Input
Amino acid sequence: MNLKKIKRVATDLAVASLLTLPLMGMAQVIPPNPISGVPETGQGLLDLIQKVATWIAIIFFAVAVIFIVLAAFGYLTSGGDQEKVASAKNKIVFSIVAIIVAALAFAIPRLIFNILGFGEPVVP
Output
């Protein structure tokens, strides 16, 4: 008799849970509050990556210009010392090469995307 009672309670629980299943499926889910500054879509993430890459490029070019100014100052204050003149010339050449390589790194993807007809790439 005890076994029959357990089976009956288990059957009643199974039926009750199956009857309430549609109600649980239609429950309204409240979306969490979005965190400020975090992209919610793929396009938002691409825009964030583009902004970060733009800032990195701006900082890189500003630092490169500062290095050129420092190298020019070293060139002007070398006082005719051939080692200092050669060092300053090398710094200027390396800074200019770095600027050219960085500019090409940002220009080549745009050029390729425009030639292939895909529009603007993610990088600035």
In short: Residues 42-76 form the longest helix (35 residues). The mean pLDDT is 80. The radius of gyration is 33 Å.
